[in-house]
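2024-03-11 09:14:02 INFO worker-7 job=invfold-0412 stage=load source=structure_tokens
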């Protein structure tokens, strides 16, 4: 009985117990999303990246503003969330194109012919990811 009394006086018992109750009542997915552990945030960023490139004329500043604040870990999550997307004429109209991953899209959209500085900036952002940069 003494051990039981000590257990209830231990602050860690209440902290862990509270966390378990929170998991039960609120749900793990909700907590994971609040902590940034779910992929929903990265799927949204991937969709926005696609939107910025699929239109005629790539919105480079929009892309930089999306990616610059992300850590290397988060960039990898965005890359994975992007998966492969159909690429056709000028990014859009992918009916006659191929499915490309994010780096392949960047390779098509950030041509060194147009603006080398934008390509360098994009490479600098992605260098945080530790991934092999192929664009």
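2024-03-11 09:14:09 INFO worker-7 stage=emit residues=135
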């Amino acid at each position: 009985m003494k051990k039981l009394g000590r257990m209830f006086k231990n602050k860690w018992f209440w902290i862990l117990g509270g966390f378990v109750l929170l998991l039960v009542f609120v749900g793990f997915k909700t907590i994971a999303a609040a902590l940034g552990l779910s992929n929903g945030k990265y799927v949204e960023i991937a969709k926005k990246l696609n939107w910025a490139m699929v239109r005629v004329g790539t919105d480079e500043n929009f892309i930089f503003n999306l990616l610059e604040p992300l850590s290397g870990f988060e960039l990898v999550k965005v890359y994975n969330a992007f998966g492969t997307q159909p690429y056709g004429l000028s990014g859009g109209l992918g009916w006659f194109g191929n499915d490309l991953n994010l780096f392949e899209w960047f390779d098509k959209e950030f041509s060194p012919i147009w603006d080398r500085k934008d390509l360098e900036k994009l490479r600098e952002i992605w260098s945080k990811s530790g991934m092999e940069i192929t664009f």
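2024-03-11 09:14:09 INFO worker-7 stage=report msg="The chain has a mean pLDDT of 80."
2024-03-11 09:14:10 INFO worker-7 job finished
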